[in-house]
Every structure is written in structure tokens, then in C-alpha cells.
Amino acid sequence: MGITEDNPDYGYGNNDLVVTSNWTVTFLEGQLAVSCTVAPTNAQTDAITQLYVGLTNPTDSFRFYCSGSVTALHGSPPSGNAMTGFSQTYLYDPTVHGNTVRSIVFGYVQTSLGSSSFMLQQLVTVG
């Protein structure tokens, strides 16, 4: 399996607000899974408040194979926090859907100017 970057800044100008790590997509024993950790670039003042991760059909991003979300539960999260999102499914079949999926990470960062969104994406070749 390989991961190829595909327009990680497509559609959103706020992607410089976050740093991603541990971005992993796996396909093992018929299960497709994605996980990613996101932290604010400005750890002194900013905080991640919501994080969504998902895997979609690369030709039709409205056709999700799976998605998951994490939200700060109590009040405002502390500055410099990080969130890890995870999602998995058995509904993806490379013999039916092809060998490429699009991994999407979307969320919100609380800054001194209010809440800002970000969206990162990568194409992933399975198999």
C-alpha cells in the first residue's frame, strides 16, 4: 500500500493552522481503516476543537466508505492540544471499488480570532 499526496490544500487556506502526524491508512483482512493525529501549529494559543477523518471514493468524495469524529467534550480544550481521529469499515472492496481511496482529515481550530476550519486530503493506493 502506498500513500501519495493529492492537493492537501485544496479548497481551504487555513491548513497552515495545523500539523498532522501518524497519518495511517491500512487494508488488512478486508478491513479498511484510517487514523490521523492533528495538533495546532501555534501551540501557545490555539486548540483543536473538532476532528473528522474519513475514506472516500476518489472520483466521488460524497461516497464515503467510512468516517469518524472526535469533539472536545468539556468547555474549551487547552492550547496546544492534539486530537487523534479513527475510522474503519469492511464495506470497501478493492475488486469492486478500485485500488485508490481518498483520505480526508477535516476539523476546526480555536484561535484568538475565533474558530477556523481546515481540510487535508491524500490519495491512497491499496494493495
Account of the protein in words:
The chain has 127 residues and is mainly β. It has a single domain, classed as Sandwich (Immunoglobulin-like). 3% of the residues lie in helices and 62% in strands. The protein has one helix and eight strands, in the order E-E-E-E-E-E-H-E-E. The chain has one helix at residues 94-97; strands at 2-5, 18-28, 31-40, 47-57, 60-71, 83-89, 100-111, 114-125. The strands form two sheets. A five-stranded antiparallel beta sheet has the order 1-8-7-4-5, with no helix packed on it. A three-stranded antiparallel beta sheet has the order 2-3-6, with no helix packed on it. A hairpin with a 2-residue loop joins strand 4 (47-57) and strand 5 (60-71). The radius of gyration is 15 Å and the shape is elongated. The termini are close together.
Keywords for this entry:
127 residues; mainly beta; Immunoglobulin-like; 5-stranded antiparallel beta sheet; 3-stranded antiparallel beta sheet; 62% strand
